[in-house]
C-alpha cells in the first residue's frame, strides 16, 4: 500500500474511532452544531484518537531504533527493561515527592528508563552467545527483577493500585487536558529522523560504524536517550502497550528494508494504524463496556510474534 493509501486508511480509522463509544454521535447533529455532541468530540473522542495515533507511532519508532542499536529484531522498550525501569522511577517520585507535577514524574521516568536501558546494554555484552533470542530473554528477566522491586515498594506503601494502572495501556481515561504531554513526542520524531542515518550505520555493527568515522558509543547513548524520553511520555500518559515495538518494525523490515530514514514514517503510520484497530476492537468486543487496549494488542501481538519466531527458525 502506498503512502497516500496509508494516510487514507489512517483518516478513516480515526473517524471511526471518534464515532465509537457509549454515547452515540450523529453526523447531522454535528453538522447542525449540537453543543453536547461537539463537547463529547472535543473532550474525549478527539483526544483519545490523537493519543492513539501518537502512542502507536512512538512505540513503533522506539522499537525500530532499539532493534538497530542492539542489532536484534526482538528488542523493544518492553523487552529491554526500559518501561519497568521507568515505572520504578515514577513510584519513587510518588513515595518521596507525592505532590510532584506530571513533568517531574516524566523526568524521573526518563532518568530511570535511560539508566535501566544502559544497564541492560551492559548486561547484554556479557552474553556468551550471539543467538538473538537470548537478548530479549535477558531483557525480560531484567525487567521482571526491576518490576518486582517496584511492586514490593508499591505493596509496602499501599500504592499497588496506582502501580497496576501503569501495567496496562488504557485509553479510556484520556480526556482533554490529560494527554497533551504526548505532543512532545512529535519533536522527538524529527530528532530521530535527523539522526536516522547514524542509527542505521550503528545497526551494522561497531566495526562498520568506527570505520565510517562514527562515534559508536555516543550514537548508541543518544539513541537510548531519545527512546527513553519517548517511552516515558507514553508510559506517563497511557501506560504500557506490549509487543507494539517488536512486531511493527519487524513487519516493516520484511517489506521495506532496514534503512531507518526510509522506513521511519511508514513504521509510525503502521504503528498508529495497528493501535487504532486494537482500540476499536477493545471498545466493541463487550460494548458498551471496553477492555484495556493492551489486552487486545497482547493477544494479536503475541500471535504475530510467534509467527516471526517460527519464520526465523525456518529461514
Report on the architecture of this protein.
α3 (about 35-70) packs parallel to α8 (about 185-195). It contains 14 helices and no strands. It is globular, with a radius of gyration of 20 Å. About 75% of the residues lie in helices and about 0% in strands. It has about 325 residues and is mainly α. The protein has helices spanning about 5-20, 25-30, 35-70, 80-95, 100-125, 135-155, 160-165, 185-195, 195-200, 205-210, 215-240, 245-255, 260-285, 295-315.
Write the layout of secondary structure elements.
Layout (H helix, E strand, L loop, with lengths): L2 H17 L7 H5 L3 H36 L11 H15 L5 H23 L9 H23 L3 H8 L17 H10 L1 H7 L3 H6 L4 H23 L5 H13 L3 H25 L8 H22 L1
* Arithmetic mean of pLDDT: 86
Low-confidence stretches: none
Helix content: over 70%
The major pleated sheet works out as: none
In whole angstroms, the N-to-C terminal distance is: 25 Å
Radius of gyration: 20 Å
Strand percentage lies at under 5%
Spell the H/E element sequence.
Answer: HHHHHHHHHHHHHH
Approximate shape: globular
Secondary-structure-derived class = mainly alpha
Number of helices: 14
Number of strands: 0
Amino acid at each position: 500500500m502506498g503512502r497516500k493509501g496509508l494516510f487514507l486508511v489512517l483518516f478513516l480509522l480515526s473517524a471511526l474511532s471518534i464515532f465509537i463509544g457509549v454515547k452515540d454521535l450523529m453526523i447531522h447533529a454535528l453538522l447542525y452544531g449540537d453543543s453536547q455532541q461537539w463537547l463529547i468530540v472535543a473532550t474525549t473522542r478527539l483526544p483519545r484518537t490523537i493519543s492513539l495515533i501518537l502512542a502507536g507511532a512512538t512505540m513503533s519508532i522506539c522499537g525500530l531504533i532499539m532493534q538497530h542499536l542492539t542489532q536484534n529484531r526482538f528488542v523493544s522498550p518492553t523487552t529491554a527493561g526500559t518501561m519497568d525501569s521507568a515505572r520504578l522511577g515514577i513510584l519513587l517520585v510518588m513515595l518521596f515527592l507525592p505532590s510532584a507535577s506530571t513533568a517531574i514524574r516524566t523526568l524521573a521516568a526518563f532518568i530511570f528508563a535511560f539508566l535501566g536501558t544502559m544497564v541492560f546494554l551492559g548486561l547484554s555484552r556479557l552474553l556468551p552467545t550471539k543467538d538473538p533470542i537470548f537478548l530479549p530473554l535477558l531483557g525480560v528477566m531484567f525487567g521482571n527483577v526491576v518490576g518486582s522491586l517496584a511492586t514490593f515498594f508499591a505493596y509496602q506503601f499501599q500504592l499497588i493500585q496506582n502501580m497496576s494502572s501503569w501495567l496496562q495501556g488504557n485509553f479510556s481515561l484520556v480526556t482533554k487536558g490529560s494527554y497533551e504531554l504526548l505532543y512532545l513526542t512529535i519533536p522527538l520524531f524529527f530528532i530521530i529522523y535527523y539522526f536516522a542515518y547514524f542509527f542505521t550505520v550503528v545497526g551494522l555493527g561497531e566495526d562498520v560504524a568506527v570505520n565510517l568515522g562514527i562515534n559508536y558509543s555516543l550514537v548508541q547513548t543518544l539513541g537510548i536517550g531519545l527512546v527513553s524520553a519517548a517511552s516515558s511520555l507514553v508510559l506517563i500518559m497511557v501506560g504500557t502497550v506490549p509487543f507494539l515495538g517488536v512486531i511493527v518494525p519487524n513487519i516493516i523490515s520484511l517489506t521495506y528494508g532496514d534503512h531507518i530514514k526510509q522506513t521511519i514514517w511508514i513504521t509510525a503510520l503502521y504503528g498508529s494504524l495497528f493501535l487504532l484497530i486494537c482500540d476499536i476492537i477493545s471498545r466493541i468486543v463487550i460494548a458498551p463496556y471496553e477492555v484495556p487496549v493492551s489486552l487486545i494488542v497482547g493477544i494479536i501481538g503475541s500471535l504475530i510474534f510467534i509467527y516471526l519466531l517460527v519464520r526465523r527458525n525456518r529461514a
